[in-house]
Amino acid sequence: MRLNEENESQTQINIVPMIDVIFAILVYFIVSTLSLTRLESLPVNLPGASTAQVQNAPPVTVSLTKAGTVAVNEQTVPLSEVQNRVRVLVPTGQNAVVVINADREANYGQVVAIMDQLRQIPGVRIAVATQRP
User: Fold this and answer.
1) What pTM did the predictor assign?
2) pLDDT for residue 25 is more than 90
3) 60-128 adopts what CATH topology?
4) 18, 71, 114, 126: which one has the fewest Cβ atoms less than 10 Å from its Cβ?
5) What are the residue ranges spanned by the domains of the chain?
6) 73 has pLDDT over 90
7) How far apart are the C-alpha atoms of 113 and 105, rounded to whole Å?
C-alpha cells in the first residue's frame, strides 16, 4: 500500500499552461474585435473638413465613386433609382440619417442630384461623410 500512497501524494494539476492558453485566446478575441469594421459603402477618397462631427451609425449610406458609380448600402444602383431604394430602407414616419460618401473627385452635379432626390423623402436628414485633416 505504500506505493499507492506515494503516487497519490505526488499527483498535481499544473494550471500555468492553462492560464497561458486562456490569455492567448483572450488576446486573440480582443485584437480580432478591434479590427472589425462596418463597411457599408464603396471605397472612396473623402474630402477633409475641420468642422466634421462624428455621427452615430447610419442605417443608409449612399456612395458615389470618382468614376460615377452610385451605390446604396454597397448595392450599385442607377442615379435615377437612389430615391426609390432609400425609401425602401428608411422606415415610414421615422427620422433617418442618410450619409453621402462622395469621392472628392466625383462629379459635383451627381452629388447635387443625389441630395435633391434624398430631400424629397420625408424624415430623411442628409449627412456628408468627410475625413478630419
Assistant:
1) 0.57
2) yes
3) Nucleotidyltransferase; domain 5 (3.30.420)
4) 18
5) 2-34, 60-128
6) no
7) 16
| 71's grid cell | 451605390
Cell of 83: 430615391
pLDDT band at 126 (very low <50, low <70, confident <90, very high): confident
Residue 32 sits at φ, ψ, to 5 deg, of: -70, -35
What residue spans of the chain are helical by DSSP H?
Answer: 2-10, 16-34, 82-89, 108-119
Reference 83, options 48, 122, 52; nearest CA is 122
Residue type, 132: R
Q: With 50 as the cut, is the pLDDT of residue 57 above it?
A: no
Residues 6+ apart with CB under 8 A from 90: 59, 60, 96, 98, 121, 123, 124
